[in-house]
Write a structure and sequence with these properties.
The protein is an alpha/beta fold. It has a 16-stranded mixed sheet that branches. It has a two-stranded parallel ribbon with strand order 8-15. The radius of gyration is 22 Å and the shape is globular. It starts with a helix and ends in a 5-residue tail after the last helix.
Length: 469
């Protein structure tokens, strides 16, 4: 009877996989396994199979509706900074249609290289807060850095500042048991887990992650980038060594887009709405940069992060430089990078020389082998573990955020990227990446040819797992 039940569940799950799994490879793999070994595949499918996050999209619509009145109070001041969409700027039109958030002018951005700069900037910003603090991180550790930030947050809560902290229940799975968690709650900080397993159809899913790293202070300053909260992000973990990462500090009208992303996540996590937008806040011009806030999530009909990266690659005319610790792209991204190199674009990919896990490492080599013949240059960073997520297009567009170049960020994670359109900032990012390139070695086809005889098999096997890495 149990065998019959498993085969029946396997058939039902296989039908759902054929209908809903977003890639043909994934649908084929799930269908074969569900029909042949359902007693193993059905539990795995319940936990890892779905790529659609139910319920969140409805919550986001509720948040947008509830905050519309407050946003309207600032619209007269902010609207003059919205970048008009036009045929001359098709990238703005495409990305606006993906997220509904327009690009805004009048922003000031600061590049923060590595952990010391990033956390000194964040802590100084937190200490100056007067109205509210929003902090979201995939990982929050109860270590020296976590407690350092925690003291500032607790002090601000005692002063009457509204402090909201959100963490991923899987990335920070033990955080609710720590002394830091208890301290924050006792001092009035509102702390919540994002809770990706919330909802009837999400109950068994462990495949989704809220990978965003967001800090907002008083609706006027925001920080977004690759750093989680933990001592290793300062390079203090002896097992990992030096940690190379990048963050960005933002001031100006675009901060409202970062606040909206946090508000949506908070609503999902707590079922409570945030009314943190201050009608009296100064949302005026702080600088000269155009910034497009690009949150992406697995609830949307379209694969937002993957399409965003694809649009930027297709639009490139001079260069595309990518730095990512997890470079496991899908077929469309591989093809776009090949075509960009073939039409004369300077395409460079920077990945860690010591990746996070052997399967990811073998997958990196597999995609490297495919890109090199088209003229894409691949560099392996040797100055420690490189965790930054940075994109540079031509001489004017730079992206910094939380999204990697892999299936998880494209389809399964909640991510956020800031796209900055301005030559000054792009030049600064180019200089940073040139420094990184000086710490890299360029990969050649001869390097792959010199690998052991079993290496091609390892690359092929890792490629099979690329949709779930």
């Amino acid at each position: 009877m149990a065998v019959v039940l498993f085969y029946a569940l396997g058939i039902v799950s296989a039908v759902e996989a054929i209908i809903n799994v977003r890639t043909a490879q994934g649908a084929i793999a799930w269908t074969i396994s569900l029909l042949t070994v359902p007693y193993i595949a059905v539990p795995c499918y319940l936990v890892f199979g779905r790529t659609k996050f139910d319920g969140y999209l409805d919550q986001r619509k509720d948040v947008e509706q509830e905050t519309r009145v407050l946003l309207h109070q600032t619209r007269a001041e902010v609207s003059k900074y919205l970048v008009a969409r036009s045929p001359a700027e098709p990238i703005y039109s495409a990305l606006f249609n993906l997220t509904g958030i327009p690009a805004a002018s009048g922003n000031a951005v600061e590049l923060l290289v590595n952990g010391q700069q990033t956390f000194d900037s964040i802590i100084a910003g937190l200490a100056a807060a007067e109205h509210h603090i929003l902090l979201e991180s995939y990982i929050i550790r109860d270590d020296n850095l976590g407690r350092r930030l925690g003291r500032v947050l607790a002090d601000k809560a005692r002063e009457g500042v509204a402090v909201h902290v959100l963490y991923d229940e899987i990335g920070s799975r033990n955080f609710h048991r720590t002394g830091l968690y208890r301290q924050l709650r006792q001092t009035g900080v509102q702390v919540a887990a994002f809770n990706t397993t919330q909802g009837r159809r999400n109950r068994f899913q462990l495949n989704f992650r809220n990978h965003r790293k967001i800090v907002v202070v008083d609706g006027q300053t925001a920080w977004v980038g690759g750093h989680n909260i933990g001592d290793e992000y300062l390079g203090l973990d002896p097992r990992i060594g030096d940690w190379r990462d990048t963050h960005i500090r933002l001031q100006g009208p675009a901060v409202l887009g970062v606040e909206l992303a946090f508000a949506t996540d908070w609503r999902w996590a707590t079922q409570n709405s945030l009314t943190m937008v201050r009608p009296d806040a100064d949302h005026g011009s702080c600088g000269n940069e155009n910034v497009l806030v690009f949150p992406s999530d697995p609830a949307s009909i379209l694969e937002q992060a993957g399409l965003m990266f694809l649009q930027v690659i297709v639009a490139a005319r001079q260069r595309i430089w990518i730095a990512s610790p997890y470079f496991v792209p899908d077929r469309s991204i591989v093809s776009a990078l090949q075509l960009a190199a073939l039409r004369g674009v300077d395409v460079r990919v920077i990945i860690p020389d010591e990746p996070d896990g052997p399967v990811v490492g073998m997958a990196n080599w597999s995609f490297t082998r495919e890109l090199l013949p088209a003229g894409v240059k691949v560099y392996r960073y040797q100055g420690g573990f490189m965790h930054q997520k940075v994109l540079l297009m031509d001489d004017h567009l730079a992206g910094i955020g939380t999204a990697n170049f892999d299936n998880r960020s494209f389809r399964l994670n909640f991510e956020i990227t800031l796209l900055v359109d301005g030559k000054r900032f792009a030049t600064e990012v180019a200089g940073m990446l040139e420094t990184d390139l000086s710490r890299c070695r360029e990969v050649t086809l001869a390097d792959i040819a010199a690998k052991p005889a079993w290496f091609p098999l390892g690359m092929g096997a890792a490629r099979l797992f690329s949709p779930v890495l």
